[in-house]
Amino acid sequence: MSAETQVAEHVAEHAPNASEYIVHHLHHLSTAPQKFIVDFSVFNLDTLFWSVAMGLVTLLILGLAARRASSGVPTRFQALVEMVVEMVEDQSKSIVHGDRTFIAPLALTVFIWVLLMNSLDFLPVDLPHKFFAFTGLDELLHLHNHRIVPTADLNGTLGMSFGVLLLMLYYGIKVKGIGGFAHELIAAPFGDKLVLAPFNLAINLIEYAAKFVSLGMRLFGNMYAGELLFMLIALLGATSMPALWGAHFVAGLLWAIFHILIVILQAFIFMMLTLVYIGQAHEGH
Q: How many CB atoms lie within 10 A of CB 244?
């Protein structure tokens, strides 16, 4: 038996099955071993890295657009950015009735940031692992796990929704005052009666919690499902049946095209809900 044949048999013998392949790609590069319990001392480094990286790219894009803006014939880049800015401005104007000096730029930043993070899903799922293996970083720095898409991590999406929750509380207090905000918590929606105060408070706390959880879960669920589908399609290309290789290419192409709509739509929905929740904080019950 030749050496090449022995190597091929060794690789085939130790190759992961479908379940092991998917489970491996769903693990994060963390500061501690993955656990199925809540541990706030553990950080998913890959989620943090790609979130910050896409945030910097967002600032770079907006900064370039601001510096290159001109009153003459716009370039394609300027025209694209102006279309997005006008769309966000129109939505913020119709939803938030108040000072939008900070809110409109925030919505624009959120839309582009989430869009870029979602778009990372188009990169091959094996790209980080192939890169680490090629450079030797997997053994040198123990980089055996890495997930590219930050919005497919519940920690990342709930972190963003927590920021929106803080903004809701901030604008609620800023617009209504501390006394008015506290009074609304115990007086709405059932009425300003002492006996109804506990029920009003419970309803309002549940409402804030539901907004916080649903905002993060919606984005996470859609992107996590999309990531799983890309992995399942990738498994078709790993089969030894040539008839499935064409199916792998066609399925991957069709899902990537359809996923473009999902990536844009989920970024738009997250931005819109951010505006809606902040807009509700400006209004009373």
A: 15
